[in-house]
Amino acid sequence: MLIRHAESEPPRPDGPDDLHRPLTARGHRFAELLADTGTPTAVYSSPYLRAVQTVTPLARAAGLPVRTRWELREWDSGLAPTPDYAEHYAASWADPTAARPGGESLDQLTARALAAVAAVAGAGTVVIGSHGTFVSRLLVGLGVAVDWPFSHAMPMPAVYRFRWGPDPVVRGPGL
């Protein structure tokens, strides 16, 4: 099960950095509802606070720890928070091989996402908490036709279920 984090506080110049942005009160309420979505054998998360907070109620209900893994983090776009981010993201989706200085391309993110999931896939029924662009690019890597409008419209939270293997079947919002 792949979960995009619930609603988080928006980035602000005077707010916490991206690693420490928490869920909103609404996001916490949605995260609590996820506790009833299944019984995993392992729960992994991006180390970003909003992703950890999203999967914590589910992990607690299953009596499991949340194991953070750096490779499950959000895309490193090479952009500072900016109000016109959607314009920049759309350009990246149009050329997924392009990377900004200090950032990774969307194709590099796809490879990272596939490798990260492969590393934990043998643990049984696994829950992974991550981020919208990570989830979108993992879906691309699994052969799902995903584009920028899909990624941009992905709800918070979004839950995708799939079986890891040569012919994955993916179910979730927008598919």
UniProtKB/TrEMBL annotation:
E.C. no: 3.1.3.-
Protein name: Histidine phosphatase family protein
Record's keyword annotation contains Ribonucleoprotein: no
Alphabetical keyword list: Hydrolase
Disordered, as annotated region: 1-22
Gene Ontology MF, one: hydrolase activity
Coiled-coil intervals: none
Highest classification ranks of the organism: Bacteria, Bacillati, Actinomycetota, Actinomycetes, Pseudonocardiales
Basic and acidic residues bias spans: 1-21
Gene3D superfamilies linked: Phosphoglycerate mutase-like
Enzyme's top EC category: hydrolase
Highest rank taxon of the organism: Bacteria
